[in-house]
C-alpha cells in the first residue's frame, strides 16, 4: 500500500470522527434540527444501500440482474459512502469470501499472532479499522473483479471515486442551503451531520460486519469460517448483519432468511423485483437451508457464544 493510500484512508477515518465530536459539541441543541436529521437519514439510506445492495449483493455476488444504468447508479451511490472505489471494494470482498478467516482474508479478526484477550482485541481492531492501513484495496482487481474491469463505464466510476465521494459530501451542504431558503449556517450544519457524521456512521456500521459479525453472535449453518448473525446490528446495517447466513449462501439476495430477520436491503430488492427493475433474484429454498444446518456436537456450548469459542466449524 502506498503512503498516499494510507494517508487518504487515515483522513477518511479521522476527519468524520473529529466532525462527530466537534459537530456534537458545537451544534447539538443549537443548530441540529429536523433538516439535519432528515437529510442525514436520506443520505444514510442512499449511500448505505449503495454499499449493501449495490457494491455488495449486486456487483460482488450477482444476487440479481438489473438494467445497466441501475448498476451504475448503485456504483455511484456506493462511492459516496467513501469506502473506496467500486472495483477495489468488490475485489477485496470477493477475496474475503475466497479465504474467509484464513491467511489471505483482507480483514479477518482471526488471523493474528497474539493469544487470549490480547489476540481478540488485536483481531477486532484489524478487522474494524487496522486493515485500512495494510490490506485495504490490495486484492488484484484483474483476478477478483475481472467482470467489472472489462466494463469501461465501471472502470470510469472506479477511477472517479475521489470526485464522486466529494460530490457526496457537497450534496448535503447544497440541500441544507436550498431547503433552508439560503442560510449558510444551515448549509454548514447539514454538511457536518449529513455529510461527515453520516460517513462516520456508515463506515463504522460497515466495518462492524467485518469485526463484530465474525466474533460475537449466533451461528446455525455448517460453514468453515467464523461468521455470525448479530440481530441488534440488523437495522443499522440494512440487513447485512445476518452475515453468517450470507457466508452460508453468498449469492442469496436476502441475508435475512427468517421472517424476524429484518433485512431492509432485501426489501429494496424485493420491491425492485415487483416493479420490474430486478430479475433473476437468487433465493435459497427452506430445503436447501435445512441441508446446510449444523448438527450441534455433543456437549456443545450452543449458539450465542463467541464464534471464536466455537471450534466445531
Ligand atoms: Zn464475512
Ligand atoms: Zn459478501
Major sheet description? none
Q: What small molecules are bound in this structure?
A: zinc ion
Give the N-to-C terminal Cα separation. 33 Å
Radius of gyration: 20 Å
Low-confidence stretches: 300-313
Strand fraction equals under 5%
**How much helix is in the residues?**
55-70%
Provide the fold topology:
Blueprint: H1 3-27, H2 34-60, H3 68-79, H4 86-98, H5 116-128, H6 141-144, H7 146-149, H8 152-159, H9 161-179, H10 184-211, H11 243-248, H12 264-274, H13 286-292
Helix pairs in contact: 1-10, 2-3, 2-4, 2-9, 2-10, 3-8, 5-10, 9-10
This protein binds zinc ion (2 copies).
Your description of this structure?
The chain is mainly α and about 325 residues long. The protein has a domain of about 220 residues. The protein starts with a helix and ends in a 21-residue tail after the last helix. The C terminus is likely disordered. The structure holds zinc ion (2 copies). The site of one zinc ion has 7 residues, from helix 2 and helix 4.
Index terms:
about 325 residues, mainly alpha, 13 helices, about 55% helix, disordered C terminus, binds zinc ion
Outline of the structure:
The protein is mostly helical.
Amino acid at each position: 500500500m502506498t503512503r498516499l493510500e494510507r494517508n487518504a484512508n487515515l483522513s477518511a477515518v479521522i476527519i468524520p470522527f473529529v466532525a462527530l465530536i466537534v459537530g456534537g459539541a458545537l451544534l447539538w441543541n443549537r443548530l441540529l434540527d429536523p433538516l439535519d436529521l432528515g437529510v442525514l437519514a436520506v443520505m444514510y439510506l442512499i449511500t448505505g444501500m449503495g454499499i449493501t445492495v449495490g457494491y455488495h449483493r449486486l456487483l460482488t455476488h450477482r444476487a440479481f440482474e438489473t438494467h445497466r444504468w441501475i448498476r451504475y447508479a448503485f456504483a455511484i451511490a456506493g462511492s459516496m459512502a467513501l469506502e473506496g472505489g467500486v472495483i477495489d471494494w468488490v475485489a477485496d470482498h470477493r477475496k474475503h469470501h475466497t479465504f474467509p478467516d484464513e491467511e489471505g482474508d483482507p480483514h479477518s479478526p482471526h488471523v493474528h499472532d497474539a493469544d487470549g484477550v490480547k489476540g481478540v482485541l488485536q483481531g477486532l481492531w484489524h478487522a474494524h479499522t487496522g486493515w485500512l492501513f495494510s490490506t485495504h484495496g490490495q486484492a488484484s482487481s484483474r483476478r477478483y473483479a475481472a467482470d467489472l474491469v472489462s466494463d469501461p463505464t465501471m472502470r470510469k466510476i472506479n477511477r472517479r471515486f475521489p470526485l464522486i465521494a466529494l460530490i457526496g459530501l457537497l450534496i448535503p451542504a447544497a440541500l441544507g442551503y436550498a431547503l433552508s431558503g439560503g442560510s449558510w449556517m444551515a448549509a454548514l450544519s447539514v454538511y457536518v451531520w449529513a455529510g461527515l457524521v453520516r460517513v462516520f456512521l456508515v463506515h463504522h456500521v460497515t466495518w462492524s460486519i467485518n469485526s463484530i459479525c465474525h466474533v460475537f453472535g449466533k451461528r446455525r449453518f455448517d460453514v468453515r469460517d467464523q461468521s455470525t448473525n448479530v440481530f441488534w446490528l440488523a437495522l443499522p446495517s440494512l440487513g447485512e448483519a445476518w452475515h453468517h447466513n450470507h457466508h452460508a449462501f453468498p449469492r442469496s439476495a436476502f441475508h435475512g432468511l427468517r421472517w424476524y430477520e429484518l433485512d431492509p436491503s432485501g426489501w429494496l430488492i424485493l420491491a425492485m423485483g415487483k416493479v420490474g427493475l430486478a430479475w433473476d433474484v437468487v433465493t435459497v429454498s427452506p430445503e436447501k437451508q435445512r441441508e446446510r444446518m449444523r448438527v450441534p456436537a455433543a456437549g456443545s456450548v450452543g449458539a450465542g457464544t463467541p464464534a471464536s469459542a466455537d471450534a466445531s466449524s
